[in-house]
Design a protein that fits this description.
It comes from Marinococcus luteus. The chain is an alpha/beta fold. The chain contains 16 helices and ten strands. The protein is globular and about 60 Å long.
Length: about 375
């Protein structure tokens, strides 16, 4: 099924991205006679007219997203095939998209906002950019602790903040909790990214919620003391640093490690094969878990289609695709994690309302700065 060609300014239809990738470098189909080309053009024009009518009947949903995965694009195409609703995509950094929606105000064309981390979703909520959404489907597919208390955003995938280590230099029995990484034995051995990173901010925010500000700040100070190097790079860079011997244990999101296992970069594959995954705090408070999620915008023109779209992304089929292809844990309790995720073992999660990650974010950043975390 072709998607209609009429687009909102600034939007990229997801199916067009896939079509370009599939056709790139193949010019053989252009080597036809002029008569054949003319016939094909007439047929194409007729088909495009039919497709525009079908698209108009199906409607559209305009998506602002900070995610950038092939799996997502394929799911958008599948949603269009099943519903006739076209998905128009604007991609960008989360904070840039939030600022864009604030500038656009009631004139925004964005219907759905998707981003990683409950902290960012909370920022959009606090800016009055999202609306409360009633949906029996979403309530059934997404457990209460993975959605906003006011139903303004809904988690779609989970990721755990895990430890990865080199088993030749670290025995698993030496690992226990995030807090234990502040002990003297880990001096100059810990790799973790900057305090500007939202994933670390949310981890810190969870400590504030569970242990209070004093203990949370002490943890941040201890991590700074034990860093093997100044923070640099992303999560995968921390794992690469362990593999190269710059440090012995790294803090990173689980799905990044899955991406390394199946990477097109041999360096990442080799690094992942040399490391092991550990879920901290299993006998304490549980491993920190965050979500990638979606909210229906306050002023979007296609709210009904937007709800249907998010409901689709919470379905068993879509949740299975997120897990199999992008190595994220499903939030839908009826969906099993992929075989790779299951191979790492089961784990207990922190028992907190993820809304608090956003509520504690500003304080988390302040305490990390006070601790000297760059």
């Amino acid at each position: 099924m072709q998607r209609k060609s009429r687009l909102l300014t600034g939007f990229i239809p997801a199916v067009s991205l896939l079509a370009l990738a599939a056709c790139g470098g193949d010019n053989e189909s252009e080597e036809n006679t002029s008569g054949e080309n003319s016939a094909e053009e007439n047929s194409t024009e007729e088909q495009n007219g039919e497709d525009e009518e079908a698209g108009a009947e199906g409607g559209e949903v305009n998506l602002y997203t900070s995610r950038h995965y092939d799996t997502d694009e394929e799911l958008y195409e599948q949603f269009t095939d099943e519903t006739g609703i076209e998905v128009n995509v604007v991609s960008g950094e989360a904070d840039e998209l939030i600022e864009r929606m604030e500038r656009e105000g009631e004139a925004t064309e964005g219907d759905v906002f998707i981003t990683a981390d409950a902290g960012r979703l909370h920022r959009a909520k606090e800016a009055d950019l999202l609306q409360s959404t009633e949906s029996e489907v979403l309530d059934e597919n997404i457990p209460e602790n993975y959605r906003d208390a006011d139903s303004e955003w809904f988690g779609l995938t989970k990721r755990a903040r895990v430890l990865v280590y080199d088993p030749e230099r670290v025995d698993e029995s030496e690992l226990s909790t995030y807090e234990a990484l502040t002990e003297e034995k880990w001096e100059d051995r810990v790799l973790i990214r900057s305090s500007e990173n939202i994933y670390n901010q949310s981890l810190m925010a969870s400590f504030i919620e569970m242990k209070g500000e004093e203990e949370a700040k002490a943890w941040a100070e201890g991590i700074v003391d034990n860093m093997a190097r100044d923070p640099q790079g992303g999560d995968r860079d921390q794992a690469l640093g362990v593999a190269s011997g710059e440090g012995d244990v790294a803090v990173m999101n689980s799905y990044y490690f899955g991406q390394m296992v199946n990477s097109s970069e041999q360096e990442e594959v080799d690094a992942a094969e040399s490391l092991e995954v550990f879920f901290p705090n299993q006998e304490e408070d549980g491993t920190h878990v965050n979500v990638s999620g979606a909210g229906i915008t306050e002023h979007g023109p296609n709210s009904e289609e937007a709800v249907e779209f998010v409901e689709f992304l919470s379905s068993e089929e879509a949740q299975g695709d997120f897990s199999e292809a992008n190595y994220e844990y499903p939030v839908n309790p009826d969906v099993e994690p992929s075989e790779l995720l299951q191979s790492w073992g089961d784990f207990e999660e922190q028992d907190i309302d993820l809304t608090t990650l956003g509520e504690n974010n500003a304080r988390a950043q302040m305490l990390m700065n006070e601790a000297g975390w760059e």
